[in-house]
Design goal:
The strands form 9 sheets. The chain has an 8-stranded antiparallel sheet with strand order 1-2-3-14-13-15-11-12, covered by helices on one side. A hairpin with an 8-residue loop joins strand 16 and strand 17. The chain is built from 3 helices and 39 strands. It is globular and about 75 Å long. 5% of the residues lie in helices and 39% in strands. By secondary structure, it is mainly beta.
């Protein structure tokens, strides 16, 4: 393993979540520094309404070096909202357990089954896994029915019959007041507002992780971070995970099954389908045992309540035209039957100097006048704001390719992996932003910012391609190889010297479940 992978990296995690048009619970956090002066701070944040009492935010953060990016996904459930709730989950909602038939299923399948039974599932995470067996781990109570009652070393999460959330040690027996209960894992992240883990920033201890936390007001935080996917996501240690949960306001929190099992699923307002938002480190969703389903009981009536407007929280270069689309949503967060005919679009106060907006109905266009700044666009109906989106117009502060070289096939189309960023955020480039120079003109041509490889199959070409931003002094170069075999990188190209091996899991009833761990450089991970 290379030395740069082994180095100790100091990371303190934070999450900031903003309000959207739908009523959402704010998840506020602060940015902190450790003794080395190294920070981990939000560099990109996108907030989503899901349903009444349920909100989501996806975010990217990094430390001061810029080399330790993380991606996280958080959902907050207001336990006092009568339309929002949590339900423990297992294969077919545990209906096979009474007969002694145990099985595993991915959280997508578990959520789909619950929906087939009439539940409106708007979110889900995994919670536990019993290695080598599909039998439920520890406690499992679904809708007041005790399906598995086993004392263990692992914590379990409970929703009581009066709607309160609790995290209990696995040695605490059920007391009959459990409406929902599901096993987690043994590691406490937070007790009484204090991180229970020794400070640890070692790369080798970082992984994808899942956590459940409870805030002082009783709201529940479900959290997943990506990992084992350098440079996109380095993952978190247990200490870093606890710090993230503290910054989200949790006063108690527990670790859940992580690694390739970590799963975060949501159904954002204005959509009909649940989808996975995190990136599983196995490359696809794992089968698992227990999980938590987020249930909405808000009844959709199809009557327009507000609009969900995209894009949001994006970055564009000056002079760009941004096409916006509004989706009509009813109170429940479901699609409304139609958009009112007399909605209008307008720039919010403070954004008028940045350009112009025009449109009607569900579509509008913002045209930048070249001025940098944050743009906020509102949709109005009966003189009230019923939808809002914001984005930033800016010049990038960095321009770079993903790698020093790239191998392409004849006639292939590619963006060559060019990335423009502003304070770590990806900037959307328009045609004309980049002046392209090709060392060997026979290698291909550019259509906007897309490189089209030559159709001359008789040539093997290695040439340098240079990208130069037209309005500011930013350049980047890459070697393009055409008609040449690429080098083989065993672990997907993160250039850290690690190789990964993963063995499959079975999916059958009782004895057919089989699991083998990930092995990384001879070290076993879950």
């Amino acid at each position: 393993m290379k030395a740069h992978v082994k180095k100790i990296i100091s990371v303190v995690l934070c999450v900031v979540m903003l309000m959207s048009v739908m009523p959402m619970t704010a998840m506020a956090a602060k940015i902190m520094a450790d003794d080395t002066g190294c920070y981990s701070q939000i560099i990109s944040q996108k907030d989503y309404a899901i349903s009444p009492g349920v909100s989501e935010a996806d975010f990217v953060y990094n430390d001061a070096s810029g080399n330790n990016q993380n991606k996280g996904y958080a959902m907050e459930i207001d336990m006092t909202n009568s339309n929002a709730g949590l339900m423990a989950s297992y294969y077919k909602l545990g209906t096979t357990v009474a007969a002694g038939e145990y099985a595993t299923a991915g959280m997508s399948a578990q959520a789909a089954y619950a929906e087939s039974q009439g539940y409106n599932v708007v979110g889900a995470i995994n919670t536990d896994l019993r290695f080598g067996s599909p039998e439920p781990m520890g406690m499992l109570v679904i809708n007041g029915e005790v399906l598995h009652d086993e004392l263990s070393a692992n914590n379990y999460f409970v929703v009581t019959k009066d709607g309160k959330a609790e995290i209990r040690p696995g040695t605490q027996p059920l007391d009959g007041n459990e409406q929902q209960a599901v096993g987690c894992f043994a590691q406490w992240l937070i007790k009484d507002g204090v991180n229970q883990n020794a400070e640890d920033h070692a790369q080798g201890n970082r992984a994808p992780r899942t956590a459940i936390g409870i805030k002082a007001d009783g709201n529940v935080i479900l959290y997943v971070c990506d990992g084992r996917n350098i440079p996109n996501a380095v993952g978190m240690t247990l200490y870093e995970l606890a710090e993230a949960m503290l910054e989200l306001g949790c006063v108690t929190a527990t670790n859940c099954d992580g690694g390739g099992s970590s799963t975060f699923i949501s159904k954002r307002e204005g959509t009909d389908n649940l989808s996975m938002k995190n990136v599983p480190s196995d490359g696809s969703e794992r089968e698992t045992l227990g999980g938590l389903l987020v249930i909405s009981t808000a009844k959709g009536d199809g009557v327009f309540d507000h609009a969900n407007i995209t894009p949001a929280n994006e970055y564009y270069t000056p002079g760009t035209s941004v096409q916006m689309t509004a989706t009509p949503v009813d109170y429940s967060g479901a699609l409304a039957d139609s958009m009112p005919d007399d909605v209008s679009w307008a720039l919010a106060e403070g954004s008028e100097s940045l350009g112009e907006v025009s449109g009607s109905g569900s579509a509008a266009t913002f045209i930048s006048n070249g001025t940098e700044g944050k743009v906020e666009v509102n949709m109005l109906y009966n003189n009230e704001v019923v939808g809002s989106t914001s984005f930033r117009i800016c010049y990038p502060d960095s321009l770079a390719f993903d790698s020093e070289s790239i191998s392409l096939n004849y006639e292939e189309h590619s963006d060559l992996g060019l990335k423009a960023k502003y304070q770590g955020n990806a900037v959307n480039l328009k045609a004309g932003d980049i002046k392209w120079t090709i060392g060997d003109a026979g290698a291909g041509t550019f259509d906007g910012n897309t490189f089209i490889v030559t159709d001359n199959y008789l040539a093997s070409i290695s040439t340098e391609v240079t990208a130069e931003f037209t309005d500011i002094e930013k350049t980047a170069a890459i070697t393009v190889n055409i008609g040449m075999q690429p080098s083989v990188v065993m672990d997907g190209g993160d250039n850290d010297g690690l190789s990964y091996e993963h063995f499959g899991r079975g999916t059958g009833i009782n004895g057919s479940f089989a699991w083998q761990p990930n092995v990384q450089d001879g070290v076993t991970y879950d």
